[in-house]
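F.,

This is the one I mentioned.
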């Protein structure tokens, strides 16, 4: 992984470079003390991960991330800040950052965050390659056989899958078993919901696919609600930061948080295709 560091404090940039190099997290391909230099560099260097300070003299980090994201659609952004305002943190997540690191910089926290971001970035890129393979494969396909109840029962429950649902607080919710059934089938058969529909998948396991689909949607929505509660309590909660921008869309999580706070009369929505695709990617 190639890193690019942006902070008007040269000492912070040096500390980050030492941590990244010493812990063998990747290579620092460049750094800048202001937004203008950073924008000129990144168009050439195309770093995998950008670490950017929130408060800088010329342009704030949130604005800068908004300018860089169209140029670096496959890059992950980490933000540094002494600011603890929840609204400011929320604005940063909405701009497209993956994680917040509070100043003063702590080497253990920096290493932990970077390793998590590297894992998520690798997962997304793997999913993208899989999607491209499917898109490039124009050969006609035989229709997938309908799974009988006997074949479904032979699936072994994925510990990683169960662990994620448990962390979301929905492992015992009606519909969680349906999620596991569908997700494990997708993993085993290299299925992707860009190639089929949830209704078609459910029809392979149930005589009432519509009911099964509704249970899955309700369980996923319950996970969104639980995640929103975690975010209200603590924006830096590990579960919240890991899943609010992967399994779910952060903007929709924020809407659910506003609903819980009474600031809005609209719930957040779950894009079920994205949820299931990301869920299976996590397990892979």
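My design for it:
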């Amino acid at each position: 992984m190639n890193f690019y560091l942006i902070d008007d404090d040269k000492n912070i940039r040096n500390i980050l470079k030492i941590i990244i190099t010493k812990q063998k997290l990747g290579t620092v391909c460049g750094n800048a003390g202001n937004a203008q230099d950073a924008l000129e560099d990144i168009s050439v260097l195309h770093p995998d991960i950008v670490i950017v300070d929130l408060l800088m003299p010329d342009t704030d980090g949130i604005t800068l991330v908004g300018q860089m994201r169209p140029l670096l659609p496959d890059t992950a952004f980490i933000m540094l800040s002494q600011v603890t305002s929840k609204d400011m943190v929320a604005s940063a997540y909405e701009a497209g950052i993956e994680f917040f690191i509070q100043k003063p910089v702590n080497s253990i926290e920096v290493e932990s965050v970077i390793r998590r971001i590297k894992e998520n970035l690798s997962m997304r890129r793997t999913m993208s390659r899989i999607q491209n393979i499917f898109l490039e494969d124009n050969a006609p396909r035989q229709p997938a056989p309908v799974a009988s109840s006997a074949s479904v029962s032979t699936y072994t429950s994925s510990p990683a899958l169960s662990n994620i649902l448990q962390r979301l607080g929905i492992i015992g919710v009606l519909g969680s078993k349906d999620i596991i059934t569908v997700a494990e089938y997708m993993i085993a058969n290299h299925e992707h919901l860009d190639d089929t529909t949830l209704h078609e998948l459910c029809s392979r396991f149930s005589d009432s696919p519509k009911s099964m689909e509704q249970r899955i949607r309700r369980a996923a929505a319950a996970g969104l609600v639980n995640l929103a509660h975690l975010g209200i309590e603590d924006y830096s909660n590990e579960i919240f930061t890991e899943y609010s921008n992967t399994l779910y869309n952060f903007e929709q999580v924020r809407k659910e948080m506003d609903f819980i706070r009474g600031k809005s009369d609209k719930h957040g929505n779950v894009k079920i295709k994205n949820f299931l695709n990301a869920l299976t990617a996590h397990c892979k």
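The CA atoms of residues 259 and 265 lie 6 Å apart.

Talk soon.
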